[in-house]
Design goal:
Largest sheet of chain A: 11 strands, mixed
Shape of chain A: globular
Helix content of chain A: 25-40%
Distance between the termini of chain A: 22 Å
CATH class of chain A: Alpha Beta
CATH superfamily of chain A: Amidase signature (AS) domain
CATH architecture of chain A: Alpha-Beta Complex
Oligomer: homodimer
Structural class of chain A: alpha/beta
Radius of gyration of chain A: 20 Å
Largest interface: A-B, 21 and 21 residues
Strand content of chain A: 15-25%
CATH topology of chain A: Amidase signature (AS) enzymes
Mean pLDDT of chain A: 95
Strand order of the largest sheet of chain A: 1-3-2-6-8-7-14-15-11-9-10
Order of helices and strands of chain A: HHEHEHEEEHEHEEHEHEHHHHEEEHHEEH
Low-confidence stretches of chain A: none
């Protein structure tokens, strides 16, 4: 047991030790709860820590495994859930004090799926208010700080989830992504994560922000772990009207490390503009490495990306205002300033503008479908900048001052509009020691290829063996 | 040939004569063109009459049939299309002078399907401007008058299509239905027609008014003819993103006349309120007849129908304003007053209100799904009133003056929101000699049952053997 370094482990590795009974889920949970204690004080990744509940679940897992009833690679693995996933009997705040006392009476479908696979819910992760805040300055549950530099943001809105995973408080965290809220904190905290295809993972029991852009997804330390988690989470759910009945792949088994002949498109506009030079260099170097692994890398033109990015913001703004209208109307003073200002704006959008944006969406989807007739994946930066400081409202990029929220979501949000799967994978650190993320996106429901490319890169090139030190 | 009374014939009957070569499509077309000449002068059902094109197509059909290449029950049958179905090389005005010179370069999918089945396009039918007018006072192409009383409206927006069929200018007409625009003129003119399930019939090449409520469908003299037409028109079309891939039934063969044991629900609220007493009595008598045919008739409660009716109007208003925004913005003076006023209003709707209406839609769909777990079809009045006079702006119902447009769409429009199939079938005449329509609605994609019930009624009870006299 002493040979297992729980500070640097992954689902892939720890599950083998658990299966071989080299460590018990009860021991695992105790060690992780200790790490949560350390991380919570410094970085504040959790709103609720479920120590008792987790210990009980660990005991049950231990019993089952002792009796030979090993359920699979998630059995005994501690996970966190962003505090907008419904958890029966456990408060689910959605990051707002308005819902401080909201206790759902059933689990979200994805929580049930993980629990059925034997995973152990260890805590509810901190998040931007309603997943709609634009800064890390959460007025209700405090800032989530970046584990690589605690003066910097963790990114959001699934910042607590990313920090929980990066610091080894959990090996898996559930996040949601409406304009990048899974991939941005993953990139800024140096972990792997996927926003799958729209309809791939059930949204039943997930507090909505934006019906047509919200995507739940797993956040983990490595792409291999992401594949294991996605295999459990994906699949049709009749309780979610957006859920699609499309075959779920053998994602983990498909990680062959072989990407020879895979056609990789690198967009020739938009994604590499308005970008921090260190991030650009890091992602370009990673693309060179992917070419060296045998992929065919080519430039590709996707039209009208600026329009697509604007349409995404319009839909997000209008749907969020409609979704949160009740709170915005009746309890505005309890909503944080950043969220309230966005709701004030969203409430004024005209239906005709919203519908125009939705029509642009159809065009954008056609443009991406056309691109994916020529390439298998697209590679872009994950986020155009490394983690800004908590105090920054704007960042200086390309000699312009850009609002932090706009800079952070630039590379991610169009894939919410298009509904296409995209992974964020770490590709190194800036000179000041902040993670750089790369995004690999693919065809609708082709998570398998996206994961295979990202994992091959991670397996051969940038092995994420070092993690932020909590001590 | 003299034994065939073309004034009262149907697809079902005429097709047998054509198949047996007792009459040639060339003779048929000449007789129908003669009737068009009579009807056009009195009632104005057409915007464009395609005499030359129809005669050529008839010659081709005659040749084929002579050579033994009979295509099926639509071969040689004259049909009309509402003037918003794209017809290659033939102007398609959408009822507005703004598009007076618009000539598409391809046929709508449904036009191609009918032509491939051997049907002959005889004219483009008059309609409300953009299918959005509220009155029959069309400022561009003139009023369409009711064949049963030319002082009365034909109903809209597919009024020309209904009149063409009622007067025997065509045995089939294509209409579109966004809030009742197929079923209302069908009811008011005494013919049968279906608005099928959303996604059942392709909208490719159909000028849009409202993306989420528009439904194309066939209008015919009898339900048996509707079934023949639907069998040709229904089916998946990759060119229409709303099209659904669901098996098309053998609708005509399924008309057994036997409805013993069919569970018929009669809504206990909304549909029989705010209704003309003669219409109510007519529909109730028809329901009694259906019970006598062996169906199990029961009252059923569907909640929140008033809200559903309001949500439909909101979505229609907002989407129409977005859809026609270009014309509304650049050429408002050329748009009729009734349409312009609706667009002025629609352009002011907030995105949040539109989204609220779309959320109500989901609830309405669940409510109907619940109702259809207990019954096989619902029966309601087709339209709450018989055809009002052209000069009427309001009608007096239940001691209240109601705007004509509101009264006409009351019973039909919620089925557009729910996207469910519904047939309008004639059930008799008022004392003043105006048709009364009954609506039979069913589960999504269960057009077969809806048609079977309506046809059984028509077969055994109210045989539509008399038609308005043009002379």
């Amino acid at each position: 047991m002493t040979s297992i370094d729980l500070n640097t482990t992954t689902i892939t590795r720890l599950s083998q030790h658990i299966q071989k009974k080299e460590i018990s889920p009860v021991e695992v949970i105790d060690i992780f709860l200790n790490r949560i204690e350390q991380a919570q004080e410094k970085l504040n990744p959790f709103i609720t820590i479920l120590d008792e509940q987790a210990r009980q679940a660990a005991k049950k897992a231990e019993d089952e495994i002792t009796k030979g009833r090993y359920r699979g690679p998630l059995h005994g693995i501690p996970f966190a859930a962003k505090d907008l996933f419904f958890t029966a009997g456990v408060k689910t705040t959605c990051g707002t004090r308005i819902l401080a006392d909201f206790v759902p009476n059933e689990d979200a479908t994805v929580i049930s799926r993980l629990v059925d696979a034997g995973a152990i819910l260890i805590g509810k992760a901190n998040m931007h208010e309603f997943a709609f805040g634009t800064t890390n300055l959460n007025p209700h549950y405090g800032n989530v700080r970046n584990p690589w530099n605690s003066d910097c943001v963790s990114g959001g809105s699934s910042g607590g989830s990313a920090v929980a995973v990066a610091t080894g408080c959990a090996l898996l965290a559930l996040g949601t992504d409406t304009g990048g809220s899974i991939r941005i904190p993953a990139a800024l905290c140096g972990i792997a994560a996927i926003k799958p295809t729209f309809g791939r993972i059930s949204k039943h029991g997930v507090y909505p922000l934006c019906w047509s852009l919200d995507h739940p997804g797993p956040m983990t330390r490595t792409v291999a772990d992401t594949a294991i988690a996605l295999e459990c989470l994906a699949g049709y759910d009749p309780k979610d009207p957006c859920s699609q009945s499309v075959r779920v792949g053998d994602y983990a088994a498909g990680l062959t490390g072989d990407i020879r002949g895979v056609r990789v498109g690198v967009p020739d506009t938009f994604y590499f503009d308005a970008i921090d030079p260190e991030v650009k260099a890091g992602v370009e170097a990673a693309i060179d490495r992917i070419r060296e692994l045998g992929a065919t890398v080519m430039p590709i033109h996707i039209p009208d990306l600026e329009t697509a990015a604007a349409a995404t913001l319009m839909i997000l703004s209008a749907e969020a205002a409609a979704c949160l209208e009740k709170f915005h109307r009746t309890r505005p003073d309890e909503i944080g300033k950043d969220v309230r200002e966005r709701l004030d704006l969203g409430a004024l959008h005209l239906a005709a503008s919203y519908l125009k944006a939705q029509r642009i969406r159809r065009k954008v989807q056609r443009n991406f479908a056309e691109a994916f007739s020529r390439v298998d994946v697209l590679i872009t930066p994950g986020v155009s900048i490394a983690a800004p400081r908590l105090s920054d409202n704007t960042v200086r990029v390309d000699e312009a001052d850009i609002p932090v929220g706009v800079a952070l979501t630039r590379c991610t949000r169009i894939f919410n509009l298009a509904g296409l799967p995209s992974v964020s994978v770490p590709v190194g650190l800036t000179e000041s020691g902040l993670p750089i993320g790369m995004q690999v996106a693919g065809k609708a429901f082709d998570e398998a290829t996206v994961l295979r490319v990202a994992e091959a890169y991670q397996r051969h090139i940038y092995q994420t063996e070092h993690w932020p030190d909590l001590s």
